[in-house]
Amino acid sequence: AQKITQTQPGMFVQEKEAVTLDCTYDTSDPSYGLFWYKQPSSGEMIFLIYQGSYDQQNATEGRYSLNFQKARKSANLVISASQLGDSAMYFCAMRGIIQGAQKLVFGQGTRLTINP
Amino acid sequence: GAGVSQSPSNKVTEKGKDVELRCDPISGHTALYWYRQRLGQGLEFLIYFQGNSAPDKSGLPSDRFSAERTGESVSTLTIQRTQQEDSAVYLCASSPYAVNEQFFGPGTRLTVL
Predict the structure, then answer these.
(1) With contact defined as beta carbons under 8 Å apart, do A11 and A3 qualify?
(2) Phi, psi values for residue A53, rounded to 5°
(3) Which residues of B touch A33 (CB under 8 A)?
């Protein structure tokens, strides 16, 4: 079975600071993908970044980067130069390539609040 | 282009009634997923359709839940004899074949009184 753990229910950060959202995972699948989604108060799920388990480099997308530490089974999201519009729920998710390839398994989420 | 659409956006029903939730995926997307999100929680997988293959129903919580999809188009999630614990936001997502990212719709908020 696959499992995602997000241990920070809430985070408060000052605008323009960097923030790291924690995510650890567990899977027996030798090949898998890790995702981060943003969910603003409006409710839509916005894809942010993807990391494949065999990717040699950490994924980056603009201000988002994924700190992937395979041995520790962690996939933390780093947001640089945070903005007020970054305030939202953030979900870490994984998808097996062999097992459970047809679904995303989500963590409980972290509510990020950016203070001006 | 148009994204994933879902209807209705909100549905209030009485305990014991049946409800139908609709999802229109992005045109050309062969994969379609249904998820449930209870208040303050992450998303729970319900069911997955891929082309003409048999759907993966492993996430459906009870036999009161069912879903259909016509080809690679519209999908309907049906909940029979609704219970208060069915109250949640039901999210639909679609993706092209062999693409990692899932594109989500705005969801249907279901409230069972």
Answers:
(1) no
(2) -65, -20
(3) 100
Cβ–Cβ below 8 Å for B43 and A102: no
Is residue B17 within 8 Å of B110, Cβ to Cβ?
no
The residue type found at A61 is E
Segment B14-49, tens digit of pLDDT: 999 999 999 999 998 989 999 999 998 899 999 999
Distance, CA of B5 to CA of B25 (rounded, Å): 7
| Residues written for chain A | 116
Q: Is the minimum CB–CB distance between B14 and chain A shorter than 8 Å?
A: no
Query: What pLDDT score was predicted for residue A30?
Result: 86
Beta strands in chain A (DSSP E): 3-5, 10-14, 19-21, 24-26, 32-39, 46-52, 60-61, 64-69, 74-79, 88-96, 105-106, 110-115
- CA geometry: angle at B34 spanning B32 and B40, to 5°? 140
CB pair distance less than 8 Å for B59 and A91: no
Segment A87-96, tens digit of pLDDT: 999 999 998 7
Tell the burial category of B67 from Cβ atoms under 10 Å away from its Cβ (0-12, 13-18, 19+).
buried
Contact of A32 with chain B, judged by CB distance below 8 Å, is answered with: no
